[in-house]
């Protein structure tokens, strides 16, 4: 094919470099190691303090005139949402609603000082609330707080041991104790992870895994709120197939449905979802989203109070509003930092992942000491804070002030509110999480393995429970990584004519294979799990088994050596050995034909070798026909693995595939093309 040259074409002329020669010509940069005294300067100390207390960095630079108006509007709006979501999400944590308000208040105070995200709204998140609730119901079920019913007669009060009732006060005290203890443990885990700088571990929770997990969590939240909507008595279920047992209990007692609660819950779901759609559709025309949760709560409280639904219909009320830990820590942080990074990228600033661990850890420890449960961030609440003009953490502290006002002043007004209304608010806010299901077909088209991770995590979390399901999803995800590296893609490269470009020969038509040279590339790390697969693919590509060739040639040479000793064959008749094995041999040994004289293995995509792989490759390099072409930072790793010695030297390494090819062609043209395999065979005599 004719070559097309353009004005942007360029030509490069330089020496052929092996890695050893390049290091001799270009001296390596010495790595400076500073002492502790040299590092601990005043500037370094100030940076560390500002890193641990980010408020010292951003607050002095806060542009009051530009940002404060937006932060005030955003803080007030978000604060109203925080109040209602805090009260509603307390149902998921299986504690009294007032503790939801505490959870929407206390964690914000410490995050204001320690956090690095300017936009996330710190507080209860339905997934972590449900995980807390699962532990609470396991350690403090209703069955642990049963007591005999006191029956009041005309003249005396009699205790009937056959009739039992739940001691509500004892149960509530124990449940909040469990929730607060778990919250403190979550905080301790997060602080420890932050101090150890292991925030990167959360990267193992990929987007498909988190998407499948949160969708399953939305399903569990929905199931858990059905019993509140219909207000029927059921047992507490946790663990494997808990959703099925809950649905069975609800169906068995469906005839006891409280009509007032059912109507209130369904109306709440319908109204809240409808208004949220309006907010989304007209978000560019409405300066502030309609706080529909607040409006519904106020109306529902007024209706319940005026109609006295508790005494007339037995509606379940909140009461007075006056005054497994590691996985929860990981999930809470993972969700929060993912949301934080989205808004940080949108507004062009950075979020420190390790500092976020410390910030959320301290916030959870602080909140747990004040009767709060685990804090993270809610996606919908954060979206409200950002869309209403929030510019900094000041919006968060203003939202906390709104929550404090509700705690101190408006608590009695919410006393007659039905729980089914709160359950309706919870369910209505699950729409965004359920809509993640629509991403599955797109994910399938983009990457089938990622799609399988999403589906596997979702199904495991639904069937096995959130904690075990998350672990199962993580194991499945790690398994896909192992499988993909255990069976890496390998290719034979060919040369684009008149260039130094080498491409997969299966991908392009006009690619030339260089005569006598096979170029092999592996697009994966090489380690103990895939070294055998690597060698198998290499044998397939080169067209022969080097070990078998070596043994056959060795056998032939031994027989020839015996014939020479017996005088049946002259030594001059076998001078061609090592140069031409295609000729007819004087002995009856079938030696496989080798059509190449050199092998170049491109390691540019190999990120690491382990001890097993290095040992296996070294043996094959000595005994077989292999000349690896290693590029990049693999040289230091190979040196550390003692890959090189007197026989296998760094001279087999080159800067690029083209350097290796030119070197081989130069050696061949000068006559230094003796078969290296035959040379090793002759050394055995």
Automatic annotation (TrEMBL):
GO CC term, one of those recorded: membrane
Protein name: Solute carrier family 26 member 4
Classification via Pfam families: STAS, Sulfate_transp
UniProt superkingdom: Eukaryota
Listed GO MF terms: secondary active sulfate transmembrane transporter activity
Record-linked Gene3D superfamilies: STAS domain (3.30.750.24)
Localization in the cell: Membrane
Membrane topology: Multi-pass membrane protein
CDD domains (UniProt xref): STAS_SulP_like_sulfate_transporter (cd07042)
Domain spans labelled STAS: 507-617
PROSITE patterns: SLC26A, STAS
Matches recorded under InterPro entries: S04_transporter_CS, SLC26A/SulP_dom, SLC26A/SulP_fam, STAS_dom, STAS_dom_sf
Keywords of this entry: Membrane, Transmembrane, Transmembrane helix
TM segment ranges: 98-115, 122-140, 176-202, 254-274, 286-306, 326-345, 357-374, 394-414, 421-440, 452-476
């Amino acid at each position: 094919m004719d070559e097309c040259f353009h004005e942007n074409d360029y030509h490069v002329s330089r020496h052929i470099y092996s890695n050893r020669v390049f290091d001799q010509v270009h001296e390596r940069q010495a790595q400076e190691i500073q002492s502790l005294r040299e590092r601990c300067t005043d500037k370094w100390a100030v940076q560390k303090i500002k890193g641990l207390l980010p408020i010292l960095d951003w607050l002095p630079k806060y542009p009051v005139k530009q940002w404060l108006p937006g932060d005030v509007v955003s803080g007030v709006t978000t604060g109203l949402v925080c109040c209602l979501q805090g009260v509603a999400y307390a149902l998921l944590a299986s504690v009294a609603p007032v503790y939801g308000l505490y959870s929407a208040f206390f964690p914000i105070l410490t995050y204001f000082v320690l956090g690095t995200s300017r936009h996330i709204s710190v507080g209860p998140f339905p997934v972590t609330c449900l995980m807390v609730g699962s532990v609470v119901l396991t350690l403090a079920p209703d069955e642990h707080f049963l007591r005999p019913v006191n029956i009041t007669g005309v003249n005396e009060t009699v205790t009937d041991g056959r009739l039992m009732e739940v001691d509500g006060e004892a149960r509530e005290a124990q449940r909040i104790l469990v929730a607060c203890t778990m919250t403190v443990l979550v905080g301790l885990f997060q602080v420890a992870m932050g101090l150890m700088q292991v925030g990167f571990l959360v990267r193992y929770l990929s987007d498909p895994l988190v998407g499948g997990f949160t969708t399953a969590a939305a399903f569990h939240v929905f199931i858990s709120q059905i019993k509140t909507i219909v207000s029927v008595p059921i047992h507490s279920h946790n663990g494997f197939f808990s959703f099925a047992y809950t649905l069975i209990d609800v169906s068995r007692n469906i005839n006891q449905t409280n009509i007032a609660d059912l109507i209130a819950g369904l109306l709440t779901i319908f109204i809240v979802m409808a208004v949220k759609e309006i907010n989304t559709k007209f978000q560019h025309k409405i300066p502030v989203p309609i706080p529909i949760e607040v409006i519904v709560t106020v109306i529902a409280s007024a209706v319940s109070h005026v109609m006295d639904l508790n005494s007339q219909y037995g509606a379940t009320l909140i009461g007075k509003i006056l005054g497994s830990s590691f996985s929860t820590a990981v999930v809470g942080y993972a969700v929060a930092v993912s949301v934080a990074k989205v808004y940080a990228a949108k507004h062009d600033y950075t979020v420190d992942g390790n500092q976020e661990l410390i910030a959320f850890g301290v916030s959870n420890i602080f909140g747990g000491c004040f009767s709060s449960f685990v804090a993270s961030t809610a996606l919908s609440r954060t979206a409200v804070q950002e869309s209403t003009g929030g510019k900094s953490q000041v919006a968060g502290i203003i939202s906390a002030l709104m929550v404090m006002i509700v705690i101190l002043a408006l608590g009695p007004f919410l006393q007659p509110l039905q729980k089914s209304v709160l359950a309706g608010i919870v369910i209505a806010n699950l729409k965004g999480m359920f809509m993640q299901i629509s991403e599955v077909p797109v994910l399938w088209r983009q990457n089938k393995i990622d799609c399988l991770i999403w589906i596997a995590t979702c199904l495991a979390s639904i069937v096995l429970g959130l904690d075990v399901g998350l672990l199962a999803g993580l194991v499945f995800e790690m398994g896909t990584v192992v499988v993909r590296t255990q069976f890496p893609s390998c290719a034979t490269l060919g040369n684009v004519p008149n260039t130094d470009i080498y491409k997969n020969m299966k991908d392009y038509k006009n690619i030339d294979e260089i005569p006598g040279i096979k170029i092999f590339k592996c697009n994966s790390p090489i380690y103990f799990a895939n070294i055998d697969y690597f060698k198998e693919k290499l044998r397939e590509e080169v067209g022969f088994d080097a070990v078998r060739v070596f043994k056959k040639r060795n056998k032939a040479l031994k027989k020839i050596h015996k014939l020479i000793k017996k005088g049946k064959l002259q030594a001059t008749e076998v001078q061609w050995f090592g140069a031409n094995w295609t000729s007819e041999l004087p002995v009856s040994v079938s030696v496989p034909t080798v059509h190449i004289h050199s092998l170049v293995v491109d390691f540019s995509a190999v990120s690491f070798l382990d001890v097993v792989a290095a040992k296996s490759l070294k043996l094959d390099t000595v005994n077989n026909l292999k000349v690896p072409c290693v590029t990049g930072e693999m040289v230091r790793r190979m040196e550390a693995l003692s890959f090189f010695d007197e026989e296998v030297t760094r001279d087999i390494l080159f800067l690029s595939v083209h350097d290796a090819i030119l070197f081989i062609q130069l050696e061949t043209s000068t006559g230094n093309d003796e078969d290296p395999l035959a040379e090793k065979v002759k050394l055995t005599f």
